[in-house]
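pinning this so it doesn't scroll away 📌
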Amino acid sequence: MNKPSSVQNKKVAATYISELPSSTLPSPHSSLTEQQQAKGTDQPSRKRQSKNKSLLGGGKLWLPLGSGILFVALWQIEVFHKIFDLKKYQLPLPSAIASSIQENWSLLLSYTGYTLAEAVLGMVIGSLFGFIIALIATASPRWGAGSLTLVAALNAVPIVALAPIMNLWFGDGIGSRIAIVTATTMAAMALNAYKGMSSVDPLALDLMHSYAANKGKVFRYLRMQHSLPYVFTALKINTTASMIGAIVGEFFFSSQGLGYLLSNSIKIAKMPLGWSCIVLAAIAGIIFYMVVERLEKVCIRWHPSQRT
């Protein structure tokens, strides 16, 4: 019995297909049409998502800005003076503070740069020391636990107690305030970085060991990478702590800086000038924080917290 040839098979198939109703036959353009319809339905949803994101982004900007404008307006019309029974010399009006900033702009700008330099240098040194302590604590838990305890104890010491000691050790120049900021920023970095390096997924560790990775490579490619979000959290905490440490340190032993000018302004009852120092210190702290936040977005794009 002869087997059917390929030509015969093709003829049978063509005959079978021709007998089928036209509604059951797939259109040659059906897949393309479906893709176009899917794209058409996706486009409005994407537009809605982008619109929602823009609205959320606008809310993040306009809500605090509107709240700030409302707060300043209530302050200007003396609402807070009536609530707390304050006089204008106790709480100057925003217009008086703005006039003081304008009159003393060059002095305030110079002192803001001096205080910001103390805060940045102290935070960098303190964060570096804290990260090194976290590395030691992770590599040698037996010895590292004691170092973390000492750092936490140092952080519990008030700045007003550290200022005279640092002034005695480093003199009355900028070094003493940098030392104060260094001491106040070590603990946050040490504890956060240690948490990041010690809370690695055990499955990831097993994978590195299966690749015969030594301890150095595990630290470099796994532990340090995993600790980056914790490190940037500590840096953002330290931006505010460093400004506080620098300004409070200038209260005691300094011949320039916002803390020095603020202290002297209060002593001679120049309250608008004192509040000008507070305003510029707040602006400098916000800019410092935003710079660190921007660095975080650039350095850890892969982290889920940066995908929203």
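📌 and the second one:
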Amino acid sequence: MNKFIVLVVAVTLLFWGALLYKLTGNLDSPTQEQANSLEIGKDLNFNDLLDRLKHQTLITEGIRNPFEQPAVPKPVIKVVKEPVRDIVVEKPKPVKPKPRITLDAILPGDNPVAILKHNGESAVVSVGQDIWNVHIESISADKVTIAYDGGTLELAP
């Protein structure tokens, strides 16, 4: 592990050393041509520089003056709100969902009974009994009819 760290440090130092050598090697003293151009630049004055500039013209076609008043004022449109009328809307009566009652078994006979299940609770019911907000209307060998606030429901095993 130590040899690897030494190798990484050595390569890093070698890289940075080569980079710095390249950067400083390009900063030699100016050549004779560069020195002559510097002396010519000293003789120039501001007016000569202005003469050498390319003159630019401003194109004003299609440009709107933001400070100019419009020739024709825009028409003023008045919005008249109608008075609010009281509208009576009857709310629909909420529809009661069907009860979640399941039929487990039917025991027919002279006094038939059924085993119903609701929310994990089982009950043995007979005709005319009220339980879980429903009324047991009839029990036959193949179905049980119950009545609730929203209507009637037939349960089959």
